[in-house]
Amino acid sequence: MDIPKTLGELKASGYRVKSVKEEMRDNLIQMMKEGVPFLEGIVGYDDTVIPELQNAILSKHDILLLGLRGQAKTKILRQLVRLLDEQIPIVQGSEVNDNPYQPISKYGRDLLAKHGDRMPIEWIGRDRRYQEKLATPDVTIADLIGDVDIVKHAEGRYLSDELTIHYGLVPRTNRGIFCINELPDLAPRVQVGLFNVLEERDIQIRGYAVRLPLDMCLVFSANPEDYTSRGRIVTPLKDRIGSVIRTHYPRTRQQGIEIMVQQAWLRRDSHGLYVPRYIYEIVEETVRLARAHPAVNQHSGVSVRFSISGSENVVSNAERRAILLAEYPAVPRISDLDAMLASGRGKIELALVEELEQEDAVLVKLIAAAVKSVFEHYAEPKELREVVEWFEAGNSFRTGDRLPAKVYVEQYQQCAPVQSATAIIGERMGLKIGELQPPALASLIEFLLEGLHVNNRLSKQRKENQTTYRR
Prior knowledge:
By secondary structure, this protein is of the alpha/beta class. The protein has helices at residues 7-13, 20-34, 49-58, 73-79, 106-115, 141-144, 150-154, 169-172, 188-192, 195-199, 235-240, 253-263, 277-290, 304-325, 340-344, 356-378, 385-392, 405-412, 416-428, 438-454; strands spanning 63-66, 87-91, 121-125, 130-134, 146-148, 165-167, 176-181, 202-203, 212-213, 216-222, 243-246, 396-399, 459-463, 466-470. The longest helix is centred in the last third of the chain and has 23 residues, at 356-378. The N and C termini lie far apart (81 Å).
């Protein structure tokens, strides 16, 4: 079927123009009937945010996502474009995506009056129907709504001519979705400029006697008002937003790991990479513990970006060792967790002090507590008494992020209790010790030793790039 190229052809095709919110509602209903998720890659919101979001769309509401940093607010809002039709017709050349049946701009009305059913139309896709603006204190009404275009005036048009107007982002997103991120950072006087758009669905520009009835869905993201003193959402604006939906951090460790693995860049070329499950668990547990630690400013929150960038740095440290030692596959160890410090700086805000040394000290304690929590999931220290007794006999074990795996294996082969303990822990992880390559075995050995250390069964001494465990 040929795509209509004029208004007359569009009428003959029987095409019906729907409002943006009708499109979103109809397409959401169809997806729900077919069991197709309308959001992709969003984890942990199935029983909380997503039902509220579906209700808001079914109610044809404008939406505000309210939550701390790193809670996928922007990612969700950008995916709402999937609820729009693949293509819609507009008046050809229209800056405000005029509906061919009822153009709202002077340009569109003049073109309709001139050509009638022969008025040319064009089709635009979803990508042209979504606009996003990051709110900053310097954003003006002209940016969002519009202003006089001095160039057009200089070309000979009168200031009273509507065609002299330069439309802002909001009218240019007519028949689409307009998003403002970090809404509280928008100056109050600019927020006031959005009142009419949200309630009366029109805009006024300067002193022009013109109203543009807009068809659009407005969506916003914001941190809670007590997060920062930079600004707040003015009450009348919040009153005009149909649904305010609170986002949250992953409720379980498993959900956090799923997000981490999904978002982090963990696919390295070289000669192979293997990341043990407990490494992911420790990284995620570190972030979860930070969200409850008294030294961390909980109003600021601890973003999932910490676990994402932290896991990337841990893997990179393992990759660096593999490159330097020509030892593959690259397998992260407990000693690689120190690489998380560079990722954590700036990802957490301390409640009282902000010195770098204090920040690092808090992170080190969080990592140790995370190792303890994860280790206790796989083993109880008292069932590893034989390992402790071996160390009590005066033995020691050397580890380090630059120590070759073969050095671990040589020490491992001389210590039957460590062999038995790693076999027990490996079995609970679904691993067969005999099938592990040396780098993976070295990682498991270090997990065992550090687990005993954080449970006060072993001491350790660090010197340069090596750590010695002893009783």
